[in-house]
Structure formats: structure tokens, C-alpha cells
């Protein structure tokens, strides 16, 4: 089915704002909804047939955010969004929300979680939807249509999976190089220990090229530079942050890492937000979180309290990554100096 | 009170898109609407659209008069796409189909009866000499056999003694050499309901009747019956979508649907040529009913007859 133009952006924007607001209270969601006057999304003069189709597609899009792997907060936001869209629709009789059989246990688990963490407003919303008979229980999530598409829609994945062919880099990562170097060190030390002269390995034991780690790193760097030059030509039309970042940072290993950091930052629903949210709703469970604050008590706090300390977190995490990158690059830089022979 | 948070404060006309909308969807839609206003002179539902909408929604919410016909809660509703066997060039990209809703507890024979195909109405034979005797036996009565093919099993219609096992040929063919199709079985259609079958959604299955008229069947959706659906069992299998085929009109009057087709007709400008009943008789037969000129005439059933 062809997508409704602009709807995905609007939904993501609303859910993003809800996530920023950092709460799961319905009042905040309703506030954001009213701000944007989201109920007008069904407006526009159209006849009944088109309106039915449009509403179906809208509900289908919103329903996707309701299921895992999205984070808890996004799922609660999606529940509110579904409730709002279902009630704001103009079709008579109302179009229903399709839930596949396989997703149903997860949704029940989700509802149980809501009750356990005492988010009673979300649980109430869900119950209202059930009582209003808003769901179609289907075998498969997507209703199939049979028209050959003139253009296959791949736009969704383009943003997220931006570096498809960095397989060399994913193989020869910083960690791998570090390990190789460590092992190489060990090996050299071993050779020293068992040979007669304690400071230097026997000539008879030199079976490998001593600087192979360096060579490997050089080759990888070369490959990456080549690839980036290619990508740069490819992306010259689009001005994205990555190209600017690439130009800014000199070492390509670093820029590769920052590219990843950007892609991570863009996949905001799936990566660190999951980490952040888990601490909030599961405060009674001990979850190991490396970058978010521990011990934050948010479950019972009054609705609407904004946690501003979370906001600098993305920057902080990015800073952490950059720091980590620098240490690693420095670390990788070392073999050039200390390699023997 | 929750609802109050959603609806707007003042009276709004849902047809008018607000000017200062922050939603991307609405901005795009507004542009599209403006473009439409510029290019389309009369913006009204054409009859195709009305037909589609009517067919989709005419049965929603219907309740039966007889309470025993009420569908119970756990009933499954399947949506099948039955493709037309007609092959026109213009249908290359989108093959036309009709969409039927069936209940899980309905027998396969009920679906079979509900599929209306133009080949069922064909009348074989050349009738130029006796045009009044033409509609005697339609093919539906003559050749009653049919089968469904789901997941390796052929379900043959054996309700009448004339029905033959059409699938036997296929089974014999597949068993004769090792062609890689295991275990094709043949059973009776009337013994099975849809709940007994194991089906794949989106996978093409086959319905064959008249010996060689084949329809592809694809199941697009299976879901539980809902309060807002039509709950009258007698209305199922329910047709909710049908492809509209343009009918061929009579060459002479261009008004009525063609009922006769002639070949090698000395009186007709082209070969083959289509006529409606009245024009056919007026042109080819004199007042006493004698045949004028040389021609071969066959009764013609237009594929669009089910519109």
C-alpha cells in the first residue's frame, strides 16, 4: 500500500516530542496532541471511500509503533496515539486497528507491565480501546494488496542503514586491532622468554612479519578512505551531517566511529532511549545501565515533571564515544612507535 | 473526560484544512487538493467509485431476521481474492479480481457456488439456422465438475453424478514420473469446511471448472468476526469487490450489450462482429425468419455481464 505522504514524519515528530517530555502520563501526551491539533490529520475534503482507505493506513502506521522492539515510552506513546486516532477518525463505522495473533501475547505482557508499574492511565486507555471494540484480531499484521508497485518503497531503510558496505571495517574494528596487537605483544614476549637472550627473540623464531598489525591497519585505512571518497561523491547532492563530520575529523577511523554515532543518534527510538526508559519504568528492577543515571526515581513522581538532566545526555554519550574513539586511535597509533623490527 | 482532551474546542468543518497547520500531512494534502481543484472541473464520485464503496460497505452491520442465522463470536472470516481468467492486454499489470468474504464454518461448495464466471454461461454450438433455439443449455448445467486445489489436496465437487474427477489427470501425470510433487490427494469438496483447511496467506491456489477454466485464488486475510461486520449467515460468501469490465456493445445500435457474434458474415463489416439480439435478427433474417446471406452465428456472453 502506498504510504500517506507526510504522516510518518508527523507521527515520529509527535512520538519524539513525547519521548523528550520524558513521561508516560496521558496528560502530557494530550497536551502535545492538542498543541499540534493532531485530530485534524483526517481533515481535507475527501469522499467516503478514500477516507476509509486513508484511515486504515493511518491506523496501520501508528500500530507499528505499538509493538516491540520500540522502547517502553514509545510504545505507551503509540498506545495514546492509537487511542487518539481511533477516536478522531471521521469514518462511520469506525475503521479498526489490526493486531496480529503473534503480537497479542506481547501486548498482554505490555499491559501487565503497565499495571505492575502502576501506570494506570495507560492501562485505562487500553481498556477503553478494548471495550470500544477497536481491534481486529487478524492472522497476519498487514492486509495484502495486489497491485504491482511502480516504484518500490525503500525510503524507510535508507536513513537507518546508511553504511551497508563497511564490512571490512566491521571485521577489522578497533577492538580487533587492539587484540591483535596484544596478542602480538604477548607472542613477542614469549619468544623472548624462551630464547637465550632475554631481551630479544631468537632469529630462528622469527616466523612472522613483525609489523603485520601495522600493515593490516594501513590497508584498512586505505580501504576506508577509498570508500569514503566514493561515498562523498555519492552524497555530494545531499548535505548531511556525516559528510561535514567526515571533513572535520581527520583520521578515518575516527570518522567511521562518528558516522556510527550519528546513525545511532538518529535511531533514537531504538538505541539509547531503550536504555534510558528502562531505568524509569523498571526502577524496582536492577538494570545495569552504563550511560544513563542510576537511581533516578521517576515512577511515582507527579506527572509533568520534566527531567532536564536527561537532555544533555545524548551529547554526553556522544562525547563519551568520541573520547573512547580518541583513546583507541591513540592506542592504535602506538604500534608505529613501539613495534620491534 | 478523556475524550474531551481529544476533540476540538470550537466547531470545525472537517472538509476544510486549517491554514496554519503544523502537520506535514495536512500541508501536503492541501497542496494536492488545490491542484485537484484547478484541474478537475466536476469533482463528484464517478459510478465506479460509488460501486466500489457500496460493495464494500453495503453489508456492514447487518443483522439477520432469523436469530438462528446469527454468526457466533469465535467465527473466522476469510478474505479471498478470486482472479478472473480473462486475459486482456490491458490487464497485464493489474489482473482483475473479485474479493469474497467467507466464514470459516462454510463449506467449500458454498464458495464454489458463489463464484460467478462468464464461462459458466457459455452456450456451445452454431445457431445461425435456428436462432430461436439458442439458449438451451448453458455450460454451467452441462459441465458441473470443478475442483479447488489447496496445499496439495484437490477438493472435487462430487455432488452430482455428472461430476467427474478433473484432478485425476493431474494426479496421474504427477505420479507417472518423479516430478517432485509429493502426495497429491483427491477428496470430496462437500465434506470440508474452511476451518478444516490449513492455508497460507498470500499463496496462490487454484479453482478449476468447466474442465479448463482456471481461477487463481489468493487468501489475503483471516480474522475473527467483529461486532460491526455483517452477522447474517445467509449473506455469506459475501462479494465485496468486483472488477468492472466494459461490455462490448452491439455494432449497430451501440447501445445494448452484444448477445451474438458472427464469423464470416457477408452482411457484417468486420469479422468477428457483435450484435444485440434485436439488431441481429433484423439484419440477418427476413420477416418469415429465413436466413439471409452466409454466416456463422454463436451466442455470446460478455465478460462484463456481471456488472
Automatic annotation (TrEMBL), chain A:
Any one of the GO CC terms: snRNA-activating protein complex
Amino acid composition bias (Basic and acidic residues), ranges on this chain: 236-251
Family annotation (Pfam families): SNAPC1
Residue spans of biased composition, Basic residues class: 306-316
Ranges of biased composition (kind: Low complexity): 291-305
InterPro entries: SNAPC1
GO molecular function, one term: sequence-specific DNA binding
Swiss-Prot/TrEMBL GO biological process terms: snRNA transcription by RNA polymerase II; snRNA transcription by RNA polymerase III
Disordered: annotated span: 235-259, 278-341
Name of the protein this chain belongs to: SNPC1 protein
Organism of provenance: Cnemophilus loriae (Loria's bird-of-paradise)
UniProtKB/TrEMBL annotation, chain B:
Statement: the UniProt record of this protein carries the keyword DNA-binding: yes
Lineage: superkingdom: Eukaryota
Subcellular localization, as worded in the UniProt entry: Nucleus
GO molecular function terms noted in the UniProt entry: bent DNA binding; core promoter sequence-specific DNA binding; RNA polymerase II cis-regulatory region sequence-specific DNA binding; RNA polymerase III type 3 promoter sequence-specific DNA binding
UniProt keywords, alphabetically: DNA-binding, Nucleus, Transcription, Transcription regulation
BP GO annotations: snRNA transcription by RNA polymerase II; snRNA transcription by RNA polymerase III
GO cellular component: nucleus; snRNA-activating protein complex
Family: Belongs to the SNAPC3/SRD2 family.
Subunit details: Part of the SNAPc complex composed of 5 subunits: SNAPC1, SNAPC2, SNAPC3, SNAPC4 and SNAPC5. SNAPC3 interacts with SNAPC1.
Database matches in PANTHER family: SNRNA-ACTIVATING PROTEIN COMPLEX SUBUNIT 3 (PTHR13421:SF16)
Function: Part of the SNAPc complex required for the transcription of both RNA polymerase II and III small-nuclear RNA genes. Binds to the proximal sequence element (PSE), a non-TATA-box basal promoter element common to these 2 types of genes. Recruits TBP and BRF2 to the U6 snRNA TATA box.
Descriptive protein name: snRNA-activating protein complex subunit 3
Amino acid at each position: 500500500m502506498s504510504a500517506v505522504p507526510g504522516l510518518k514524519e508527523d507521527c515520529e515528530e509527535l512520538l519524539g516530542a513525547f519521548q523528550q517530555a520524558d513521561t508516560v502520563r496521558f496528560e502530557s501526551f494530550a497536551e502535545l496532541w492538542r498543541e499540534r491539533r493532531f485530530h485534524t490529520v483526517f481533515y481535507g475534503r475527501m469522499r467516503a471511500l478514500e477516507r476509509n482507505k486513508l484511515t486504515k493506513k493511518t491506523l496501520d502506521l501508528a500500530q507499528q509503533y505499538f509493538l516491540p522492539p520500540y522502547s517502553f515510552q514509545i510504545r505507551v506513546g503509540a498506545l495514546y496515539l492509537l487511542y487518539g486516532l481511533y477516536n478522531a477518525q471521521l469514518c462511520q463505522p469506525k475503521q479498526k486497528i489490526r493486531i496480529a495473533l503473534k503480537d497479542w501475547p506481547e501486548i498482554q505482557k505490555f499491559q501487565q507491565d503497565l499495571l505492575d508499574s502502576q501506570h494506570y492511565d495507560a492501562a485505562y486507555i487500553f481498556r477503553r480501546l478494548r471495550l470500544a471494540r477497536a481491534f481486529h484480531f487478524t492472522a497476519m499484521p498487514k492486509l495484502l494488496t495486489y497491485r504491482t508497485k511502480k516504484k518500490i518503497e525503500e525510503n524507510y531503510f535508507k536513513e537507518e542503514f546508511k553504511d551497508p558496505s563497511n564490512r571490512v571495517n566491521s571485521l577489522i574494528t578497533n577492538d580487533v586491532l587492539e587484540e591483535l596487537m596484544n596478542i602480538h605483544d604477548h607472542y613477542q614476549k614469549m619468544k623472548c622468554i624462551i630464547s637465550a637472550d632475554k631481551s630479544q627473540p631468537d632469529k630462528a623464531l622469527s616466523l612472522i612479519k613483525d609489523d603485520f598489525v601495522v600493515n593490516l591497519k594501513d590497508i584498512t585505512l586505505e580501504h576506508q578512505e577509498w570508500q569514503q571518497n566514493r561515498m562523498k561523491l555519492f552524497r555530494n547532492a545531499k548535505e548531511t551531517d556525516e559528510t561535514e563530520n567526515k571533513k572535520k575529523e581527520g583520521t578515518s577511523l575516527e570518522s567511521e566511529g562518528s558516522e556510527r554515532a550519528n546513525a545511532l543518534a538518529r535511531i533514537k527510538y531504538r538505541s539509547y532511549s531503550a536504555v534510558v526508559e528502562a531505568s524509569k519504568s523498571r526502577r524496582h528492577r536492577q538494570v545495569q545501565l552504563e550511560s544513563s543515571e542510576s537511581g533516578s526515581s521517576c515512577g511515582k513522581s507527579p506527572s509533568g515533571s520534566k527531567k532536564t538532566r536527561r537532555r544533555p545526555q545524548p551529547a554526553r554519550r556522544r562525547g563519551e564515544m568520541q573520547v573512547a574513539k580518541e583513546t583507541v586511535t591513540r592506542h592504535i597509533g602506538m604500534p608505529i612507535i613501539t613495534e620491534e623490527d | 473526560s478523556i475524550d474531551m482532551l481529544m476533540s476540538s474546542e470550537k466547531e470545525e468543518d472537517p472538509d476544510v484544512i486549517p491554514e496554519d497547520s503544523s502537520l506535514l500531512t495536512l500541508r501536503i494534502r492541501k497542496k494536492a487538493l488545490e491542484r485537484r481543484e484547478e484541474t478537475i472541473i466536476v469533482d463528484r464520485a464517478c459510478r465506479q467509485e460509488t460501486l466500489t464503496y457500496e460493495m464494500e460497505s453495503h453489508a456492514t452491520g447487518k443483522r439477520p431476521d432469523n436469530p438462528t442465522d446469527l454468526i457466533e463470536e469465535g467465527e473466522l472470516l476469510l478474505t479471498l481474492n478470486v482472479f478472473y481468467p480473462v486475459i486482456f492486454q490491458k490487464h497485464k499489470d493489474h489482473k482483475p479480481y473479485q474479493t469474497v468474504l467467507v466464514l470459516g464454518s462454510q463449506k467449500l461448495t458454498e464458495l464454489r457456488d458463489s463464484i460467478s464466471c462468464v464461462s459458466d454461461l457459455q452456450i456451445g454450438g452454431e445457431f445461425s439456422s435456428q436462432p430461436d433455439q439458442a439458449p438451451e443449455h448453458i455450460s454451467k448445467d452441462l459441465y458441473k465438475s470443478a475442483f479447488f486445489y489447496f496445499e496439495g489436496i484437490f477438493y472435487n465437487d462430487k455432488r452430482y453424478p455428472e461430476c467427474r474427477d478433473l484432478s485425476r489427470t493431474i494426479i496421474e501425470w504427477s505420479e507417472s514420473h518423479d516430478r517432485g510433487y509429493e502426495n497429491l490427494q483427491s477428496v470430496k469438496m462437500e465434506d470440508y469446511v474452511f476451518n478444516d483447511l490449513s492455508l497460507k496467506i498470500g499463496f496462490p491456489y487454484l479453482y478449476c471448472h468447466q474442465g479448463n477454466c482456471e481461477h487463481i485464488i489468493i487468501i489475503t486475510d483471516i480474522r475473527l468476526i467483529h461486532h460491526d461486520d455483517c452477522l447474517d449467515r445467509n449473506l455469506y460468501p459475501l462479494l465485496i469487490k468486483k472488477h468492472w469490465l466494459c461490455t462490448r456493445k452491439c455494432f449497430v445500435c451501440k447501445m445494448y450489450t452484444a448477445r451474438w457474434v458472427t464469423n464470416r458474415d457477408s452482411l457484417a463489416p468486420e469479422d468477428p462482429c457483435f450484435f444485440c439480439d434485436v439488431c441481429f435478427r433484423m439484419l440477418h433474417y427476413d420477416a418469415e425468419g429465413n436466413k439471409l446471406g452466409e454466416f456463422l452465428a454463436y451466442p455470446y456472453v460478455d465478460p462484463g455481464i456481471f456488472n
